[in-house]
């Protein structure tokens, strides 16, 4: 039997990090070989299993990402934009598949990730669930079928610890709607209106963010015209669906050529 690909989880103490550690430990196709945290994080230097309130795993949480990545075939990374840009370079050096779930990446961050993908497989998506990725396809199709008399608004709701807005998912849905319309999202995006904004501009795509409590992630795409509305909605109630998508991407990427991929590629929903 061939060896299972080894996985390092970055940001292991985070909401998604802990979820990912558990899912990799449960997997019969991947093996957890490392856990990385930020220098200064309480977990660094301690046994991962004990940090998570369980039994010893023999994996010591480290802040030496390159050393950990060198022992892995995949890095699963749901951290922060600054951390992810650094990890992209290190994962490429280690020739490990880099699965990026981090959102809030700037255009400059994306350029750096693009450079790293010359040497390694990078799978990046603002949402790793099947439902959301399918919804991007449906959104593109509906937007293509309707003209600009239909106003498009995207509403997202998340827990009160989320630090970026609009969410990565909302931006994926916005990109899909813009693509369906044949326009560039950057040209038509209206974010969080406030004050005397003037009337809504025809053809624009609006984004609105709600933050509260422990909402895992909810997204609505509204197509509104005179007398009627179409509402497409996705509700996530459990973070394991994001983690499972990330594991699927880590496995899928093992035999791919260096380059940038997304979950549509992994799920076989691409063009
Ligand atoms: N694509 C998808 O399907 C999904 C994406 N996300 C995205 O994933 C990201 C993380 O979300 P969430 O888990 O809720 O956030 P958390 O804040 O709970 O976790 C982030 C973790 O990353 C750690 N971290 C930050 N900088 C570094 C670094 N330089 N090296 C190592 N670790 C670092 C943090 O450590 P510390 O606390 O010490 O700073 C923390 O443990 C967000 O961008 C979120 O939007 C979330 C869910 C699904
Ligand atoms: O921060 C989160 O929690 C989530 N982030 C992703 C996003 O920005 O869309 C995915 C999911 O909605 C949860």
UniProtKB/TrEMBL annotation:
Family annotation (PROSITE patterns): DAPB (PS01298)
Cellular component, GO annotation: cytoplasm
Pathway(s): Amino-acid biosynthesis; L-lysine biosynthesis via DAP pathway; (S)-tetrahydrodipicolinate from L-aspartate: step 4/4
Entries under InterPro entries matching the protein: DapB_C, DapB_N, DapB_N_CS, DHDPR_bac, NAD(P)-bd_dom_sf
Location in the cell: Cytoplasm
Residues annotated as binding NAD(+): 11-16, 37, 101-103, 125-128
Keyword Acyltransferase on entry: no
Boundaries of every Dihydrodipicolinate reductase N-terminal domain copy: 7-128
Transmembrane segments: none
Catalytic residues (UniProt): 158 (proton donor/acceptor), 162 (proton donor)
Catalytic activity reported: (S)-2,3,4,5-tetrahydrodipicolinate + NADP(+) + H2O = (2S,4S)-4-hydroxy-2,3,4,5-tetrahydrodipicolinate + NADPH + H(+); (S)-2,3,4,5-tetrahydrodipicolinate + NAD(+) + H2O = (2S,4S)-4-hydroxy-2,3,4,5-tetrahydrodipicolinate + NADH + H(+)
Span of domain Dihydrodipicolinate reductase C-terminal: 131-267
Highest taxon, organism lineage: Bacteria
Keywords, in A-Z order: Amino-acid biosynthesis, Cytoplasm, Diaminopimelate biosynthesis, Lysine biosynthesis, NAD, NADP, Oxidoreductase
Gene Ontology process terms (BP): diaminopimelate biosynthetic process; lysine biosynthetic process via diaminopimelate
Signal peptide (residue range): none
Binding, (S)-2,3,4,5-tetrahydrodipicolinate: 159, 168-169
Residues that coordinate or bind NADP(+): 38
Gene3D superfamilies, sorted: Dihydrodipicolinate Reductase, domain 2, NAD(P)-binding Rossmann-like Domain
Pfam families named in the record: DapB_C, DapB_N
GO molecular function, one term: oxidoreductase activity, acting on CH or CH2 groups, NAD or NADP as acceptor
Physiological role: Catalyzes the conversion of 4-hydroxy-tetrahydrodipicolinate (HTPA) to tetrahydrodipicolinate.
Subunit details: Homotetramer.
Family that this chain belongs to: Belongs to the DapB family.
Designated name of the protein: 4-hydroxy-tetrahydrodipicolinate reductase
Organism: Salipiger thiooxidans
């Amino acid at each position: 039997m061939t060896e299972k690909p080894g996985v390092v989880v970055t940001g292991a103490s985070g909401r998604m990090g802990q979820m990912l550690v558990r899912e990799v430990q449960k997997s019969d196709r991947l093996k957890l070989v490392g856990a990385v945290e930020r220098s200064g994080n309480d977990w660094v230097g301690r046994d991962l299993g004990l940090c998570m309130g369980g039994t010893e795993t023999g994996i010591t949480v480290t802040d030496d990402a390159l050393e950990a990545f060198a022992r892995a075939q995949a890095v699963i990374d749901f951290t922060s934009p600054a951390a992810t840009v650094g990890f992209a370079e290190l994962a490429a050096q280690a020739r490990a598949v880099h699965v990026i779930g981090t959102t809030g990446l700037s255009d400059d961050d994306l350029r750096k990730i693009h450079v790293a993908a010359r040497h390694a497989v990078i799978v990046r998506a603002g949402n790793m669930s099947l439902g959301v990725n399918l919804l991007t396809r449906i959104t593109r199709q509906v937007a293509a079928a309707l003209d600009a008399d239909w106003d498009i608004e995207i509403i997202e709701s998340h827990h009160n610890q989320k630090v970026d807005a609009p969410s990565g998912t909302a931006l994926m849905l916005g990109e899909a709607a813009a693509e369906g319309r044949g326009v560039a999202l950057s040209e038509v995006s209206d974010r969080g209106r406030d004050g005397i904004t003037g009337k809504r501009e025809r053809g624009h795509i609006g984004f609105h963010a709600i933050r509260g409590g422990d909402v895992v992630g909810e997204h609505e795409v509204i197509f509104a015209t005179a007398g009627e509305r179409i509402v497409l909605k996705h509700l996530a109630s459990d973070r394991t669906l994001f983690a499972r998508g990330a594991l699927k991407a880590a496995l899928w990427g093992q035999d791919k050529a260096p380059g940038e991929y997304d979950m549509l590629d992994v799920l076989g929903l691409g063009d």
